[in-house]
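Worked example (supplementary).
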Amino acid sequence: MEVHRQQQGEERVHNATVKVQADRYVKRSLSLIMKVVSTCNLACRYCDADIYSNRRMSLDTLSQVITKALNYADYVEFIWHGGEPLLMGIQFYEKAVELQKRYKREGQTIVNTLQTNGTLISQEWVDFFKANDFHIGVSLDGPPEVHNANRIFRNGQGSFEQVMRGIRLLKENGVNFGVLAVITKETVRLGTKRFLDFFIENGIFNIGILPQRPALNIGRTDALPREDFEKFAIELFDYWYSLDDPRIRIREIDAILSRILGARGGVCIFDGDCIGKYLGITPDGGVYHCDEFMFDERYKLGNVREQTFEEILNPMNPKLIRIRLEDLKTKKSISCKYSKICNYGCPKDRYVLSRVYNKEGTCGWCNVIDHIYKRVMKDLGKIKE
Amino acid sequence: MGESNLRDELEKVWVPKDVGELEGLLLTIQNESGKKILKHKIQQILRPDWDKQEWPNWDNREWPNWIDNPD
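After joint prediction of all chains, the assembly is encoded as:
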């Protein structure tokens, strides 16, 4: 009897060990939005960054983030962000790449993406991006009358010319890049055809779009109304789809198509599992659930200078539990038949609605998805006209 | 919308459930003129380098649990 109990006990210990080992070998992915500097050389009218402070990530914090992230995950994406991340200088990123190479484990994937306003891109930067396989996102809202309406230097001057010079350098040197356009009332006024034609005429075929949201960091709640954005996105899809040119990729529409065709979207807002995977890192090592929530201390999960990612992302971390419960609760209020496609969208949109406008609602893409879904199903012969 | 109504609505939103169904879709439009975007997208998903582990399993989809979620 005693031997039997002992065997049962050993079996339980063995099973627990196997489970722990199995959990460890589940592939983990981590996308770190590295807010390496708070300041920026631009003062865009809709920006929510704290550009008048000058907090910068130290090399020690950088080293801690990289070593701990590479120790934790099998796929690590570093999204270098700011403020304006190029203000950190090339040496900072050379150090980052050196650390990545030193601590990279066998079979591990490391991706570097950098989001810049494009005004400081030089040949030296381009050579660095190319040599180290950085993917570059440039903020460009469209033609000058749209871009310069909001994306201005501190003296009020528009930044369009400087951004286009940076893009020319990227193109001439074959750097992998795309643009990210904030959709504002000026873009809506411009219209979808002129918006998309502008990018095509300038040889820019990889475009991301996002609506102007409330700049909560600085207490501003003005934004592009959802219905205006939805109307714009629907018209943009119609025009893009009529061109029928697969070289032109509009990131969010491409993701919706992938979802409709049963695959993952590859864009965080539609993949539905961002909590604990997309983390915002402040210059002092603070770890938040996404950079979209950095203004609210309740979304701070820990600090990488004091903790490992294993500790910060422990499922029993009370802050992580609270965020997950809140996520479920806000999804609960949504009765949307397209949740299969959008996965309830970005938690920030639900947050903004409930906290800023004191109402509950959907992710804001429903009508766009409905339109695209019906068009695709018609073209696939799944529904009649 | 109640739970059962929402489930019905979700069921109406058809998406291919595996690679076989997606290949079938490609076959139906392959010889039609135009539809280059759709053909390209399906071919892209079907390419061997596309991460098949990322294919969602609709049958095991975690349905929203209206009862157990905290208020």
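Two points are worth noting when inspecting this output. Chain A touches chain B through 31 residues (CB under 8 Å). The CA atoms of residues 268 and 331 of chain A lie 16 Å apart.
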